[in-house]
Amino acid sequence: MRSKAYRASNELRIQVSESESPFAIEARGISKFFGGVAALDGVDFDAAWGEVHALLGENGAGKTTLSNIFSGIYRAEAGEVLVNGELQDFRNPAQAIEGGVGMVHQHFKLVEPMTVAENIHLGWPDTPRVISQRALEERTNALMAEVGLHIDPTAKIWQLSVGEQQRVEILRVLARGARVLILDEPTAVLTAHEARELFTVIRGLVAGGRTVIFISHKLNEVLEVSDRITVLRNGVREITREAKGATAQELARLMTGEERTLEVEHRTVTGDAMLELHDVTARNDRGVVALESVDFTVHAGETFGVAGVSGNGQTELAEVISAMRSVDSGTITVGNTDITNSTVRAITDLGVGHIPEDRIGVGMVGSAPVKDNAVMRNYWTDELSTGITLSRDGVVDFAKRLVEQARVQTRSVYATAGQMSGGNQQRLVARREALIAKQVLIAVHPTRGLDVLAAQEVQTSIIGQRDAGAAVLFVSDDLDEVLLMSDRIAVMYEGKIMGIFDRADADRETIGLMMGGHSPAEVSAT
Amino acid sequence: MTTYRLERRLELDARTSALTRVAGAIIAMLVVGLILMLTGRNPFSILMDALDAIFGSQRGMEGVALRAIPILMTALAVALSLRLKIWNIGSDGQFLMGAFAALGIGIHVDGPGWLVLILMALAGSIAGALWILVPALARAYWDVNEIITTLLLNFVAAQLVTWSALGFWRDEGSAVIQSTERVPYTLAGIPGTDSLTIAILAPFLLTGLLFWLFRSTTIGFEIDMIGGNPKAASFAGVNVRRRLVSVMLFTGGIAGLGGMLQLSAPGAQQLGPGFSAQFGLSGFIVAALAGGSMFGVLGGGFFIAAMFFAGIILQTKGLSVFIIFAIYGAILTGVALGEVASRYRLVRAEAAGVVA
Amino acid sequence: MMILGIIDNAFLSLISSAIPASTVVVLAATGCLLGERVGVLNLGQEGLIGIGAVYAVIAVTSWGVESPWLAFFIGMFAAAIAGLLFAICVVVFKANQVLVGLALALGGIGLSNQLGTNRNGTPIRALFREVNPGGGLKDGGFFEAFFFHDPVVYISYIFLPLVLWFVLFRTRHGMNMRAVGENPAAADAVGVSVLWSRIGYSVLGAAISGAGGAYMVLSFTPTWSPDIARGRGWVALAVVIFAAWRPFRVVAGALLYGSMISLGVTAQARNWGLLFSARDLAFALSMLPFLVTLAAILLPAGAAQFGKRVRSTTAPAALAVPYSREDR
Question: Do C187 and A107 make contact, defined as CB atoms within 8 angstroms?
C-alpha cells in the first residue's frame, strides 16, 4: 500500500530540484504589533531548501512571532512572505500546512486522551470519512515507515514521554506534506539524550530536501545543528551568517547588544557547615524513588552547585529542603536545627530561602499585584502582621523597598505581577528570597528563560548572598552555569549523588560522564 | 481621519469591569423595555409602578428587605468561595438543609424561645456545612470538580425537603397538603417595622466581616492567594487543602444559617417543596455578577430582591411574574456580555506603516 | 394514550409509563451532551424544554397546525434559535458560559410561561399516535410495554443515540469534534474550526433539547401547564455526567433518573401497600440516582489517588472554557 505520504516524500526530492526558487521560505519587511508595541519591525529572512536555519534571540526578540506568521497563526501588519518563491498570505494554520509550512510548538497541541493515530489524523482532509481505530493505526504505521520516526500508534498521548509526544507532533506535520518545518524551542522540554535523538531526526529530514527552521536561545545547540544562523533582537534582524566559524560569545553579544561576562571569584571553603543532608531518601509524586541516600554538606559562604540533566531528582531535592516534600528517611539540618519534614513557615523563619524552578507556577501569584507577591513569604512576620491582621500600609512599604532594591521595572506595586517580563519577575523573586535567606539559599534553574542581562543580575545577586555568609545550593542543568557559579560541584543522576568535586578539580568530561550515569569507579577506570 | 479598533487589554481593571457590567445590565433592561413597548405594554408605567411599590411605602421596602435576606446569605456564601475560585452552585442545597435541620430542632425541642432559636441557628449552620463537606473534601484532596458535586447534592436536598413535607414531618392538620409542621418560635422583630426581624442584621454583619477579612487579615490574604495560584500559596506556607475545606465549610454554614433565618421569619415557620424556589439560584448569580466585591454582592442582592418583589406586586396590575424571569435572564446576559467588553478597549488605529 | 390502565403487571406498567416520560430527559440530555462534547456547557436546558414546548403548543392552538410532526419541528426550531443566541454570546463573544446558561434557563422559563399562560389547559389535538406493530403483540404485558410507544420514543431511545455514537466515534468529523472539546487549540492547529463546530453543535443540541419539550406536549401531557419542564432540564445535566458523555449511557441514565423520580408519583397514585411506607421508599429512591452519580464521580477520583489511572469517565477537558487563538 503506497500511502500518499510516501508518494509525497518521493515527489519532494524531484520537486526540490525543479523548484523555482532556491529559497524554501522568505520574509521581506515583516512588521507585527501587539498592543501598540512592535514585536517585529521590517524583518527580512530567508531559508534555503535542504537547510537547517536557526533563529536565535532572547525572549521577546520576535523569533516566535515571526514563526507564527510563517505558520499562519498571526498575520503580519506589513511585509510579505514567500514560499518557494510564491507570495503567500496564510490566514490560519491549515492554510499554512497546505502551503507546505508546518510548525511544532513548544507547548504541544495534542489531544491527551486520544491515541497517537487519532492525533495524527485529526483535521486532515486525507483521513477517510468513516474511520476505525485499526484503520487509523495501519495508516499511521505506514506513515512512520516513510518518515523514519517510530512511536506506538495505539498509545494515548498522556502515556507518552515528552520526547515521544514531540515526535508525534513532528510526524503530524510531516504527514500532511510540510516541507518547511519550524521547531520552536524544541529542546526546552527534552533531556540531553532526547535532544541528541532530535538532532539526528532533523539531519535526516534535511537530507531528504526539507528545510528546518530551529528557534532557540541555546547557543551551543544552535552551533551544533545549524547551517546558518539569524539573530533577532527587539524585533529587528541583527545578522544572518554561516554557523561554521561562529562563536558563542559573538552570538551572545549580538543577542544582547553588549559584551558582558560575569566573573565569579571562587573560594575554597572554610565556613561552618550550614546545610547538611544525611542519607536522605524521598519519593516523587508518582511514588517512585527520586532521591536515594543523598548525603552532602554545604558550608556558610559557599556555593554548592548541583549539576545533572533535569529530571534526576533535582526538583525533589530542592523540595525536601524547603519543606515542600517529606522524606522517607534521613535527616536535613540547618545549623543545629533539624528541619527534616518541617513546615515552610518554620524554615523561612530560620532563614532558608528558595528561588523555585517554576517562578510563575510556584513562586508567584500571577494574577495578584506586585505588592502581594513581594510579601508572599513573610506576611505573617511581626513586621507586617499581628497574626490575624495584616498591615496594608506595611505591605506597600515593604514592596516599594523591595522593588527599588531589586530594580524591578514596574509601573507601580499595584500592577499585576503576571504582566511583568520574566526578568523583572525573577528580580522580584530573587530579591525576596535573598532577604529571607540569611542562612541558606536554594536556587533552582534561576536564570531559565531570562535574557542575558537579567540572568547576570540574578547570578550577581546569588553570589552576593554567598559573600554575605549564606550557604548557597545552586541547581542547574546548564553545566556552564554551574561551573561558573559554584565553589564545589555535585553531580546527580537518578536521585543519587555520583560525585562531589572542588571547582578547581572539576573536569567537564568527567562530570559529563557522571551526568550520563557513569559511576565514579567507572569514570576513574577510563 | 482616525479610525478606532478594538484591542485586547493586557491587564484586567476591576473598575472598568464593574462599569461595563453595570452598563450591560442597564442596556439589557433598555432592550427589554423596548420589547415591552413593541408588544403593546408601557415600560415606563411599569417601571414607575415598580418603583412606587418598592419605595412608596414602608411595606414595600420591608418586602424587599425580607426577600433580600435569603438571597444575600447564599450570595455571600458563594462570593466567599469564589475568592478561592471555587464555584459553589450548591448554596441552594446547603440553604435547604439548614432550614431542614432548623425545622427538625424547632418542632422537636421545647424550651425558652431564644434558646431554641439559638439551637436552630447552630443546627442550621452545621447542617449547611455538612452538606458541603463531601464536595469540599473531594475538591481539596481529590481534585473533583465542585460544580458537579454540589449541583447533585442540590437535587438530593430538594427531594429530602419534599419528603419531609409529604412524609415524616407532614403537617397532618393543615389544609395545605405539602408542608411540614410549624415551628412555634420566630425571630424577634425590629420595633417600628411590621415584618422585619433581627435576621436582617445578618447579611450586613456578614458583609462587613468578609470585607474586613479580605482587606486586613492574613486569612483573607491567604484565601486570595489560593484563588490566584494554589501552588504559590503552598510555597508561601499555607496548608491549601485544609484551608480549602475550612473555608468551604464556612460558606456552607453561611448558606445553612440563611436557611434557618428564612424559616424563622414570622409567617414562614414551615418547609414545603417550594421553599427556595425563587431565590435558589439567585444567590449564586448575584455572587458571580459581583466580581468578588462584597459590597457589590450587597447591592446586587438588594437589586435582585427588589426585582422579584416588584414582579409579585405587579401581578395585581396584570403583569405576569414570568416577565420578571425573562428580565432576569436578559440582565444576566447583559452583565455577562459587559464582562466581555471590559477585556477590550478602543484604540486609535494609525494609518498603515506609521508607528508612533 | 396512557397505557397505564391496560397493563396489569405493576412493574411493566411503571416501565411503560416511565419510557415516554423519560423521553424528555433523554432528549434534553442528548442535546446537552452534543454541546458538551465540543466544550460548550449549556445550563439552560430547563428553558429550552419550555421554549420547545410552548412553541409546539402555539403551533397547534394558534396557528392551526394539525400534524404533530410539524408542531414538533416548530418547537425544535424555536429552541434552535434560542440556542443560536446562546452560542453567539458564549462562542463568538466568549461570555461566561455558566452565567449565560443560567440566563437562558431563567429567560426560557419566563418567556415560555408568559407565552403559555393563556393556553393553560387547552387540550392539544395534534398528538403523536402509538406505533402499532400488529394485533398479535398486544398482549397486555411485556410487548405492549415496549412496542406500543409513539415513534419519537423510538427515535430518541434508539435511532438518535445510534447515529450520534456512529458520528462521534466512527467518523473523521466526529473525531475532530471530540478534539474541539478536549483541546481546542490542538483542533485549531490542524484546521478544525472551533468557532463553527461549537456554534453548530450548540444549536443542534439546543434543538434536540427543545424537541424534548415539544414531544411532551404532543404526547403524554397534551396541554400546556406552568413550569412545564418541572426540573427535568436540570436533571438532564446530571444525567450527562452520570453517562460519562457517551450517547447510549445517556439513554440508560435518563431512564433510570426518570423512573426513580416519577416513582414517588406512581407509588402514591397506585397506593402501593408494602411493608413500610411506599411513599417513603419512593422518596428514598428518588434521591438514589443523584447519589449514585455522585459516587460514580468520586470513585475514579479516589482510585486515582491510589495509583490507578481511570480516564474514560472524565469530562471533555475544555468544557466551559472559551477559546481564543491569540490566547496562548
Answer: no
Is C42's Cβ below 8 Å from some Cβ in B? no
Domain co-membership, A229 together with A307 = no
CA distances from A444 to A354, A436, A459, A478, B209 (A): 8, 16, 12, 11, 41
Name which of A21, A490, A81 is nearest A291 in CA terms: A490
Please state whether beta strands A78-83 and A289-299 pair in parallel, antiparallel, or not at all (unpaired): unpaired
Residue C16: what residue type? Answer: S
The pLDDT score that the predictor gives to residue A1 is 35
| pLDDT value of position C317 | 66
CA dist list (Å): C132 to A520, C23, C159: 86, 19, 18
Q: 3-class SS at A296?
A: strand
B188: cell is 424577634
- Mutate one of B223, B235, B347, B354 to test the A interface: name it (highest A CB count within 10 A): B235
Grid cell of C278 as nine digits? 411506599
Q: Assess if residue A450 is contained within a domain.
A: yes
Question: Which residues make beta-bridge pairs with A297?
Answer: A276
CA A458 to chain centre: 17
Sequence ranges of the domains in chain B: 42-318
What's the rounded Cα separation, in Å, for the pair A480 and A221? 13
Give the minimum alpha-carbon distance from A285 to chain C in angstroms, rounded to a whole number. Answer: 10
Q: Which residue has the cell 425563587?
A: B278
With a pLDDT cut of 90, the percent of chain A lying above it is: 32
Residue scoring higher pLDDT (B144 or A275): A275
Residue A268 lies in a domain: no
**How are beta strands A101-104 and A180-184 bridged, if at all?**
parallel
A124 in any annotated domain:
yes
Strand A329-334 versus strand A337-338 pairing type: antiparallel
Q: What is the pLDDT of residues C22-51, one digit of tens each?
A: 899 999 999 999 999 999 999 999 999 999
Judgement on whether residues A239 and A298 belong to the same structural domain of the protein = no
Instruction: Say whether both A507 and A421 belong to one domain.
Output: yes
Q: Tell me if A344 and B237 make a contact (CB, 8 A cut-off).
A: yes
**Range B331-341 average pLDDT:** 88
Residue A261 maps to a domain: no
Q: What confidence score (pLDDT) does residue B176 get?
A: 59
Lowest mean pLDDT of A364-373, B268-277, C50-59, C184-193, name the range.
B268-277
Q: For the complex shown, is ipTM > 0.85? A: no
Give the domain extent around A426.
273-525
Q: Is the pLDDT of residue A272 over 60?
A: yes
pLDDT at residue number B78: 93
A421 pLDDT tier (thresholds 50, 70, 90): confident
Q: List CB contacts (< 8 A) between A385 and chain B.
A: 218
Chain A residues with beta carbon closer than 8 angstroms to that of B233: 365
**pLDDT 10s digits, C279-295:** 677 778 778 888 888 88
CATH 1.10.3470 for the B42-318 domain, yes or no: yes
Burial per residue of A308-345, b for 16 or more beta-carbon CB atoms within 10 angstroms, e otherwise: bbbebbbbbbbbbbbbbbebeebebbbbeeebbebebb
pLDDT band for position A145 (cuts 50, 70, 90)? confident
Task: Count how many domains chain A has.
Answer: 2
Closest-CA distance, C32 to chain B, in angstroms, reads 14
CATH, residue A48: 3.40.50.300
Whose grid coordinates read 528557534?
A215
Residue A6 has pLDDT above 60, yes or no: no
List chain B residues with CB under 8 Å of C294: 134, 149, 152-153
The residues near B44 (Cβ < 8 Å, ≥ 6 apart) are B33
Cβ of B229 and A365 within 8 Å?
yes
Query: How distant is the Cα of A186 from the closest Cα of chain B, in angstroms?
Result: 26
List the single range of A60-64, A357-361, A393-397, C258-262 with lowest mean pLDDT.
C258-262
